[in-house]
Amino acid sequence: MSDDNQDDDAQLQQLRAVWVTMRDEEPSDRGLAALMSAARSKASELEKAAAPSWWQRVAATLRRPQVLALATVTLLLGGALVVTQRSSEMKVDDARVEQTTAPAAPMAETQDNGAPVGGAAGSAASAPVLEQDVAKSADAVTERQGPRDAKPATKGRARAPATPTQPASAPEATGASATAGKGSRSEGFAGGQPGLVIAQDDAESAAPTPAPKKPVARTAPPSIEGEDRVVSKDAAPPTIDQLVKQCETAAARGDCAAARTIAQKILTTAPAAYKTRVANNATITRCFPAASEPTITSE
Amino acid sequence: MITDQADEDLMVLYQKGEVRAFEVLLSRHRKPVYNFILRFVGDKETAEDLLQEAFMRVIKGAEAYKRQAKFTTWLYTIARNLCVDQTRRRKHRKHASLDAPMDSSEESGTLMDVIPGNDMASDRKAVNKQLHETMQLAIAALSEDQREVFLMREFLDMPFKQIADVVGVPENTVKSRMRYALEKLRLELDEYKDLAKAAP
What we know:
The structure holds 2 protein chains of 2 kinds.
Chain A: H1 10-20, H2 32-50, H3 54-62, H4 65-100, H5 104-114, H6 138-144, H7 150-159, H8 203-206, H9 227-234, H10 240-253, H11 256-269, H12 271-278, H13 282-285
Helix pairs in contact in A: 10-11, 10-12, 11-12
Chain B: H1 7-15, H2 19-41, H3 44-60, H4 71-93, H5 111-114, H6 124-141, H7 144-154, H8 160-167, H9 171-189, H10 193-198
């Protein structure tokens, strides 16, 4: 206050001395008890109001720096984990894409070289898939050897969600005549699932109609190099009906070598069926000049 | 220790239900607030009533108190508003009479007693009493605006800034009112300056 009183003159200082000496009076205790009583009751109210509810305590706890730091670290670690997993998945998917988009020529070559039994199994398709899944495809091969069950099976797979244990399909796609993907549709990354493949083994359906754009399970069977042999070893022998069908298809395709091989197998397995269904089949017999007609061998 | 804590901290404690904090606040401010009110309204009984009402308002408004505000500013704002209301009510009711006692106590004299007469008291006690009563009259003669500023400044030793906060006017206005108040008091008390010299 001294700074404010710099302009005070002596007379004012003298006056101030008058009221400075005026003594303060003491208030009486009247009403003091009532005042304290009111203060106590209010204090109890305030105490209740000041007690935080459970959610306020939780919120206060969460706002503490330690908790915030822990949450941040957890979030960062979780994010890093997710990114790492995602990255490794992307690498695997890239590898699959590379394999599935590999040129058809080598596959055709492979299929021509190896194309044993079942190779033409009514499918001109060659579904390029991972070799690592070949072993899982045995069951699927068995399943597909039923009469004309290939197409529904393919559809079923296409609709089914991708599960690692799901049986693979389309081993027969390695047909010797597999005219380099004539009936195949590789659905690279369809549906956001890279590496998914549709192996459409029905040549007829493959022709003009676009293949269904539904992804097949990641475990789609491999039909790349070496697959046929693996499948042939593990799979059950094809039925006569299938062999006849395959033979007919191969002959129709002009692949007489395959047709003869299959016909030979039919003849060995079921001579009666050969006579009735192969020898009388004009499509097949075109591949059999008189000299090269199969005969029963001792194999 | 709770008695060493600042007013604002005590008020926060009271907000959490600590009654002892309010007791400390009451013991700390009861007397100065009472004297401020007493000098403002000039009546002991009214001053006690207003004192109680002021602290009642503190209790009721405890929840609304914010730690950022200075407690004394808040308290004296309440007290000042009560005094202003009281003086306005009294203005409508009656005008001060020269024959009326200055307060309700029997010892208090009338305004006539303190107006200087021919027979000046000779003893020191009488001089002091007369001087103080004259001073009280001079304060009562100030306008309401000047009086509250004068009381807070000279008796409560408040800075102009805080007075401005309590009264709700700019600081320069407060200084101006203070200047006018002192000028008026000087004129009122000019004829008693010799008496003031005689005072202890």
